[in-house]
Amino acid sequence: MRLSLSLLHWLLVLGMPILLVGTINRTKSWWVGRRGPGLLQSAWDLWRLLGKQPVVSTTASPLFRAGAYVVLVGSLLAMSMIPLLGRFAPFQFAYDFVVVAYTLGLARILLMLSAMDVGSSFEGMGAAREAAFSTYAEPALFLLLGTASAATGLSSFADVIGALHGTVHFSLIVVPLVAALLILLQTDAARVPVDDPLTHLELTMIHEVMVLDHSGPELAAMQYAAALKMTLYAGLIAALVNPFDPLVSPLAAVLVSFGVMLTVAVVVGCIESLTARLPMRRVPAYVLLASAAALLSMAIVGFGVGAR
Amino acid sequence: MNALILAVLILMLGAGLCLLPLRNGLRAAMGLASQALATLVACSVIVPVLLGGAEIAWEMPWAYPIGELHFRLDALGAFFLSWSLPMTFLGSVYAVGYLRKYFDGPRHLGVHFALLNMVAVSFLLVYTGEHAVTFLFGWEIAALAAWLLVIWDYSNQKVRFAGFNYLVSTHIGLIFLVAAVMILYTRTGSWFLDDFGDWLRQNPGTLRNTVFLLLVTSFGLKSAFFPFHSWLPRAHAAAPAHVSALMSGVIHKAGLYALVRFLLLSGKPDEWMGWFLIAFSLVSALIGGLYTVGQRDLKRLLGYSSTENVGIAGIGFGIGCLGLSWDVPALVALGFGGGLLHVLNHAFFKCQLFYAAGCVYQVKHVVDLERLGGLFKPMPITALSFLIGGLAISGLPPFNGFASEFMIYAGLFGSHAGHPSVGIWATLSLGLVAAALAFVGAVSALSITRAFGVIFLGTARDSGLPEAQEANRWMLIPMGVHALGTVVLGVVPVLGFALVAGPTALLLHGMPDVVATDMLQATLATLTRIGAISAGLVLAVALVLWLRFGRGAAAVSCNATWGCGYEVPNTRMQYSGASFSTDFAERFRNILVLVKRRKAPVGYFPRDSYVITDCVDAVERRLYSVIGQGDDTASEISQKMQEDDPRFAFSLGLAALVLIAALVLLVEGALP
Fold this sequence. Notes:
The complex is a heterodimer.
Chain A: H1 2-32, H2 41-50, E1 55-57, H3 62-79, H4 96-117, H5 121-152, H6 157-162, H7 170-188, H8 207-210, H9 216-241, H10 250-274, H11 283-307
Chain B: H1 3-18, H2 24-50, E1 56-61, E2 68-73, H3 75-98, H4 110-128, H5 132-150, H6 157-188, H7 193-202, H8 206-222, H9 231-238, H10 241-251, H11 253-265, H12 271-294, H13 298-326, H14 329-364, H15 380-393, H16 400-413, H17 424-456, H18 473-491, H19 493-507, H20 513-550, E3 557-559, H21 577-585, E4 592-599, E5 610-617, H22 618-640, H23 646-668
Antiparallel strand pairs in B: 1-2, 4-5
Helix pairs in contact in B: 1-2, 1-4, 2-3, 2-4, 3-4, 3-10, 3-14, 3-18, 3-19, 4-5, 5-6, 5-10, 6-8, 6-9, 8-11, 9-10, 9-13, 10-14, 11-13, 12-13, 12-17, 13-14, 13-16, 13-17, 14-15, 14-16, 14-18, 14-19, 14-20, 15-17, 15-18, 16-18, 18-19, 19-20
């Protein structure tokens, strides 16, 4: 059972990044009345990049090319502890969420250093923004986990997120928690209103501007890692709202998770179609909303348990 | 004769030999040889104690009024000695490389090496002293030796100022320490730490709380906790690199040692002490972290990050305290174990970072971020070493900082596990602390990216500086040893925990033996898993890199960096340290005060125009302005009074006596 669930988990980990990006693009096309690219278009893009010979900046050090693969491996390692299917992750142990957060931190720092490595002011700007915004985003995840672990009394990522259903105040805290995760998704996966990868105007981008000088397989690694991050947060939302335990009713759990992740992609696509990117100076306040939402749920749990 | 006394004698003999009229090279050799020998001799006793052997105690007759000196080496002291002595030796080796150009000069280098020996002596006294006077004596030797080491470049007025600043701060700390010792002496009539401990265990209450606060202040000043940190960035920027490294990584850990020693002596602490320690340390971690963001002097930046890291270790000790007062052994093991492990890890990576900064300073003669750049290619070993240390200091896997921070996080999240004595608000508060710690981690990642990115990546910003090349071997080898330690303790954190297990077991002393063993086993299992993940990460990255680049050089074409259509970029157009931190620092301008000096361009062909920005320490400025205002007020009052009026003087004296009598009556109750 665990083995087949693990296989399914990895299938989702590897496939969902492609599918989520496809779904978002499809949704956006639908809003503007185009047919849009196929759902698997980003897979073909990555495949094309893998066959290309990279062009490397003369300024870059060896770190530049190695960095892309640290980012990819770090993101994959983090994904092995993320409960995509509900209360289950292939790699699960006490306080594994700290490992997830810090592995993603390693990936992020290598991404920023690769950007600084080419000595371009544009990429330095992207790195500075990424660094600043991540400091606002980081506490939100830990507040969320602190709330969930206090509410459930459990200690691994899959348990605290997956078992939150059984707690008394779930119906109250689910909304702020999902909102917090959605904001984190938009921040970490570079989506509107935090970042708009499609403008291709260097001054307004965050993530895309950091990989301006990457090309070929290294660019593919970076882009896939970015899509993995989106899968990570979409998967967390799915695990949070998924009412089925994958170890009891696997089929329902997998289907619900899959459906919720696609729904998240559609929601992200709708937000991107209907709103504009925020001005850069407003972004910190928006990211801090995630922490505020998590704090709210923390207060609900505190007063709820204290009242009983 | 006891091996540790022998070690002290060897060190002092070596210090004496350093001062002889010999060639500078020979003097340095004497210093190094005596340190190596003393370290080996000392380790022959330290290692068995650390790995679970019996404690060693010995006495020495001494002159009146001290009478007899007592020493005792237990697991806690052995833990601190086990890395302090070898690291001091490595620092002395680095000193040979760092000061090499003075060897043929007229300057007497023996003093410097003798002082390094005295630092090692002070460790032996402080970490084994059982008599309060030996403890204070060792404390003072460390302070004076560190001061004299800091003012190596004493002809520079700024360096002298930094030195005095340090000297004054450390003695203010000493006053608090002496006050606490005096209180304990009046209560026990004894100078022995054991007797102090007995009294502290039996008399919880106001006086114990006072002693706790006095000691935390004193140890906070020693370890540069916020708001007692302002001497530290100055001293670290002024001192030679190896002195900064030893001060930050090794010498000032004595404050944390003394804190843990006090907690060990005083038995079961009150709950508020744990919360107080956590809050005090968290503020240090936050403010220290924030200050690293704005610095343009690399050594100042590293100095502030010391404040941040002692804060992180202090959070661990605070959790341990809570564990002791709640009787939750898991928290004791994770808190104290994690805190002590972080102290060890910090010693490894902080010295490494300072050594790298020293290598940069040796070739470039500046450590100003805005003038450096592109050093990765000419100095690959230094760059890699700085990168490893930087990733470790941000607590990122697969390096050692991650293992200790993981334990502290586990303590912060682990308070609820089935302990009815722990309320929901306590659990949630610790969750908040964890979130704040995550913020600190992200901030330190920001400032390390900034420091490494600006100094080592991109291209050189100032062509007027000397050509960069790799530093000499005397400097690279100590740095390499530290880097190796950082990696090994990251991939096999169990090794680090083997050193920490002894002192942690001491702190678990109040718990039943079975529980204590269980706890240590559980922590060991956790760390093994963390090590396995780190090792897996390293292997996976190595595999992917080999698959991509290993089989023959992959075809690559090189071209200039994409300039967005702009054809003639110059090196000053890179993102600078100030521009990198602006996005973030703008939100914290109350703390990160920006000082700007500028001369705007005038006319059609402006020649001389500039903008210079720097981030100054708001706390220090505030401190000085308060002291200045107080000084003004005092002199104003004294001008108004007629000092030579005897009636006034007598009445003041009477008032003081009445006040003292009232205080005595208040504390002691009515006289019999």
